[in-house]
Write a structure and sequence with these properties.
This protein is of the alpha/beta class. The chain is 44% helix and 23% strand. The protein is globular.
Length: 173
């Protein structure tokens, strides 16, 4: 979805790459883009070892994927490496929900979502993993610090849906 939005925004003057470590996800994304009339380059790759030269991109984005990366620090450093000076990293990820909402959110995500996943797809485990992986992902301030440790500057974040999701932004100067 982000690749589609960026491809529409930059038009023929820009270059957007679609990447993922998982070939099935990459193929699905490529097909969805093709169905909407966008042919963009794709690369199956590990975010910890990006196959791009230094200072290549104006913007790097990751949406709901950093949480699944084993070495987040290495992935963030790679994202910084491939950004041009002045470039921006955007990380859209599940995050820590507003404290008063936490008990209801925990019940919903740990009990309701896996059960619904089991009923609809027969795959309760994937939906349980989703809820559990969110809980071990760094909170907003910790991720901000990790981005700063990786060399990003002017790092900030914006909570969406009461912190269920947060958008982090950092720059390479």
């Amino acid at each position: 979805d982000l690749a589609l939005a960026f491809a529409g925004k930059v038009g023929k003057k820009g270059e957007v790459w679609l990447t993922d470590i998982n070939n099935a996800m990459l193929t699905n994304g490529r097909d969805r883009l093709c169905d909407k009339g966008f042919l963009i380059p794709v690369a199956q790759c590990d975010a910890e070892k990006l196959p791009f030269t230094d200072d290549y991109f104006d913007c790097v984005t990751v949406a709901f994927g950093l949480r699944n990366m084993t070495r987040k620090d290495a992935a963030l450093a790679e994202m910084r490496r491939v950004l041009r000076p002045g470039g921006c990293l955007l990380v859209l990820e599940f995050s820590q929900v507003w404290k008063p909402l936490a008990p209801a959110y925990d019940f919903y995500s740990l009990k309701v979502i896996p059960r619904v996943g089991e009923i609809i797809t027969g795959d309760e485990a994937s939906y349980r993993y989703l809820a559990e992986s969110i809980r071990v992902h760094p909170d907003q301030e910790t991720l901000k610090g990790m981005m700063e440790q990786a060399g990003f500057e002017k790092v900030d974040y914006f909570n969406l849906t009461l912190g269920v999701v947060a958008l982090h932004r950092g720059f390479k100067f």
